[in-house]
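Q: What would this chain look like folded?
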Amino acid sequence: MRRMGWVALALMVVAFTRPAAASCVTCSSEMYCADSPRGAWFCLGDGNACVMAGRCMGSGGGGFLDGGMSMIQVSLLEDSPGLMTLGVSRRERAVGPVAAGRQATRIARAATGGGVEPAILYSGLGYGEGVTVAFRSKQGDGFTLRRDADGRGARLTVRSLLGGRPGRVLANERVDENDALLVRVTLDGRTRLLVLQAATLPKPEAMDREELVKRELRDAAFGRPADARPPFELRALDR
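A: My prediction, written as structure tokens:
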């Protein structure tokens, strides 16, 4: 009986000290992403459209970690001769809390020492963690992205998309919460510049940053078609 009492006490301690399972992520009615008991592992929205990838059943996964939020800002910029000086990838340190919308073009211009800001092909905000996601064009080309939380930042791995699977590594870099990672990728038969930021923050801080990013996205979308769809489809490759 005494042994059973100790076992029961141990189980109670585990129950009260074990972190709650991370929740899934889903598209909201505002065409952005929110946590959910069921949904996807990865979600990306820009206020006009929202896409998800990977079935999440709420068993410890998705875009919302225990006590934190796995944010991802994703922008695709049109290529230009001035961007050639960036090489395949480059980490830009301490660019600020926003790396989407027009801020993404400013970051790209600053990284090349000036010149004309590239046009925005797509820019969105989302959540995702521990899943490899393919960004695939109608032509079948594109790239893959994986985000793994690391402190208040994350490790970002970007690969080319080859035959529907991850190909050559284009970037494998740890970024801090205010850094940006610039990667040259191929989408729809053309070279594009991918601008990423991946902060892992407590929920109150993440919500404040989310509002800043949404404001930037609204400004960048001014005058663009309200029904514009992303120039890619998302697919989770390992979930």
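The first helix runs from residue 2 to 17.
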